[in-house]
Amino acid sequence: MSAEKSKIIVKDKKLCKQIMQLGEFEQASNVAKARMSMQDSIQLVTWNQQGIYTKSKVVWVDDCVYRIIFIESTNPLESSIMKKGDEGEIRITEIKADEIFYEVGFNGKWFPGKLKKIK
Description:
Elements: H1 14-20, E1 22-27, E2 34-39, E3 42-47, E4 52-62, E5 65-73, H2 76-81, E6 87-96, E7 99-106, E8 109-117
Antiparallel strand pairs: 1-2, 1-8, 2-3, 3-4, 4-5, 5-6, 6-7, 7-8
């Protein structure tokens, strides 16, 4: 990924991985109300409890950065622009209580996001 990195302002960077590696999250900035489950090395994102999902492998680069490798999706938009093996990068930039701020990069484009840990 060849984009300029945002400043990561997490005081204890080990918290990123500790908080994100296992758990359930809700996308606080997503109109479609996506939920994300992180289980070991698998990330599963589901939308609106309609059985629409995207499954990716997770590879941690460091405590606040991980790569996602696309496995499969039933989301028509995502499956039309990504194929198995495509990669993206997630950078956790800030943690405030139960809110995790991040940016996600695919194909040289970066997008901000916010998650709330729910389990």
